[in-house]
Amino acid sequence: MRRSFDDMKALLKQRNIGLSHHRLKVLEYLAEHHCHPTVEQIYADLHKEIATLSKTTVYNSLHALAEAGLVRILTIEDNETRYDLETETHGHFKCEQCGAIFNFTIDIDAFATNGLKHFDIREKNVYFKGVCPSCLHKAKDNE
Amino acid sequence: MRRSFDDMKALLKQRNIGLSHHRLKVLEYLAEHHCHPTVEQIYADLHKEIATLSKTTVYNSLHALAEAGLVRILTIEDNETRYDLETETHGHFKCEQCGAIFNFTIDIDAFATNGLKHFDIREKNVYFKGVCPSCLHKAKDNE
DNA sequence: TACATATTTGTAATTATTACAATTACATTA
DNA sequence: TAATGTAATTGTAATAATTACAAATATGTA
Fold first, then answer.
1. Chain centre to alpha carbon of residue B113
2. Do A119 and B127 touch (CB under 8 A)?
3. Which of A105, A110, A124 sits opposite B128 (nearest CB)?
4. CATH code for the domain of B53
5. How do residues B93-109 score in pLDDT, each as one tens digit?
6. Cα B138 to chain center, whole Å?
7. What is each CA distance from B71 to A70, A137, B31, B53, B105, in whole angstroms?
């Protein structure tokens, strides 16, 4: 369910979420940066363009967008909540060395969920941790 | 890989982790409380028994135990890291209403992980969110 | 353009976590 | 058992992320 930027705007309108300037900027930022940024990163980058942007607004915007179902809140590690556009379900892999986060495709609905028969499941998350190929190479070079 | 308390002590010794009183108490607490407690909960409960226990010690102990591979650090939501004994892989379900966390069995190794061929995967996590049966019932009663 | 409403700002408060130095307990060896 | 070196614990203070809130501003609509 990858959406165009215009589709997303229409969706926001439909859900009665205002299309304020800053809100759209945050959304646009996420659309252009698929690196799962933290609030800090989003704020730092957008602040260069929009001098009056406050961090609170970044939080507000992200929460509003998450509420509208356009943005997913990623909690992989403490002290660094990350944000991502809502797309088809995929897993996240975090490299313990360089901290980068990678997507990988995964059919989460495929696996059996014994013991959750009477639960209303609204969100599914999968995240792995380990070392990415790039860091593995570096380690090998240092031997 | 459910372990007895004695097994765990042996394991700690083997890995050169000291068996201090407080460390064991924290471990024992986790063994007896499978509710995925937060640091706050562990501290509050153990403090009743051990008046001199400090919160820092709880953090230290949990980190040492996690290092030793006996405890798993659960990050489902911000601002509430939770801890669990390391057992066979299972998923976690968090109820958005009452906040309770449930385990469910899942064969994480079963699903294909396309796109992670050259990655060194060291940890796999699955967590779902939604509403638990008990809260679903309550909602129905209020209709 | 004017109005009602929603958004943004900025500051202050809250909370979880970590850093660190001083104290205390532990295990080992004489 | 006492002495010794190492590791654990404590307590306080610092850091950092997030939230609350009231005042100022921007937004969309009539």
1. 25
2. no
3. A124
4. 1.10.10.10
5. 999 888 888 888 887 77
6. 27
7. 35, 29, 10, 20, 18
CA–CA separation, A12 vs A7, rounded Å? Answer: 9
Residue closest to A66 by CA, chosen among A53, A39, A85: A85
Residues B81 and B94 in one domain: no
CB atoms within 10 A of CB A41: 17
Q: Give every residue of chain A whose pLDDT is below 70, as ranges.
A: 1-6, 9, 13-18, 111-114, 142-143
How far apart CA B122 and CA A68 sit, in angstroms, is: 34
**A125 CB neighbours strand C below 7 A:** no
Q: Are A112 and A129 members of one domain? A: yes
The pLDDT of residue B14:
63
Q: What is the pLDDT of residues B43-85, one digit of tens each?
A: 999 999 888 899 999 999 999 888 888 888 898 887 789 998 8
Whether residue A91 and residue B78 make contact (CB cut-off 8 A), yes or no, is no
A105 φ/ψ angles, rounded to the nearest 5 degrees: -75, 145
